[in-house]
């Protein structure tokens, strides 16, 4: 599975692509940051982010896009820019027929470090270790994007296997229930936790 993680931002939009499956070492495909100038018109900045993300999607051909779920913050202008960038990533994915997954920051942190309240240094350290990188990805937006991608490979695997086991969805046929999806996610998280306690990868 090739997953593109997007850490949305108006000034720096992190993009990280990893490849692998649950239970096996992951490999880094790409990591970068799409930047825009703070003094530029907002519409032009959004255009620049859109073009940057779309160019990377066309070049790297991800199978799924994982985007950070945006929550309200005290700084309204910051959260607005973040939400706008997240929307651009989702539209770019939809335009190419790619599924989009939303993960909260705490979900990504828990998947990577085992602690949903881990700080950026801890996340960066674990991303570097898991992808066997020679140096930590910089800036933090790049590491966060990779963390989102890794999170989806590990946590999205159970949901994908559940959907595959139930077969293709057809009109009039119900897909997996939310309870089934949650059960699959919990099982994946438990496997990951047991594996981390043994110093390995999720099984």
In short:
This protein is of the alpha/beta class and 203 residues long. The chain has helices at 42-60, 76-95, 105-113, 120-130, 140-166, 178-197; strands spanning 2-7, 12-19, 27-35, 64-68, 100-103.
Structure description:
With 203 residues, this protein is an alpha/beta fold. The protein has a single domain (2-197), classed as Ribonuclease H-like superfamily/Ribonuclease H (Nucleotidyltransferase, domain 5). It has helices at 42-60, 76-95, 105-113, 120-130, 140-166, 178-197; strands spanning 2-7, 12-19, 27-35, 64-68, 100-103. A hairpin with a 4-residue loop joins strand 1 (2-7) and strand 2. The longest helix is centred in the C-terminal third of the chain and has 27 residues, at 140-166. The protein starts with a strand and ends in a 6-residue tail after the last helix. The model is unreliable at 161-166 and 168-183 (pLDDT under 50).
Unreliable segments (pLDDT under 50, ≥5 consecutive)?
161-166, 168-183
CATH topology, by name, is Nucleotidyltransferase, domain 5
What is the count of DSSP helices, taking H or I runs of 4+ residues?
A: 6
Strand order of the largest sheet: 3-2-1-4-5
Q: What is the H/E order?
A: EEEHEHEHHHH
Any idea how many domains?
Answer: 1
CATH top-level class: Alpha Beta
User: What value does the Rg take, in angstroms?
Assistant: 17 Å
Per CATH, the superfamily is: Ribonuclease H-like superfamily/Ribonuclease H
Structural class: alpha/beta
The percentage helix is: 40-55%
Shape: globular
Fraction of residues in β-strands: 15-25%
Summarize the main sheet.
5 strands, mixed
**CATH-defined architecture:** 2-Layer Sandwich
Note the gap between the termini.
16 Å
Mean pLDDT: 84
Number of strands: 5
Assembly level: single chain
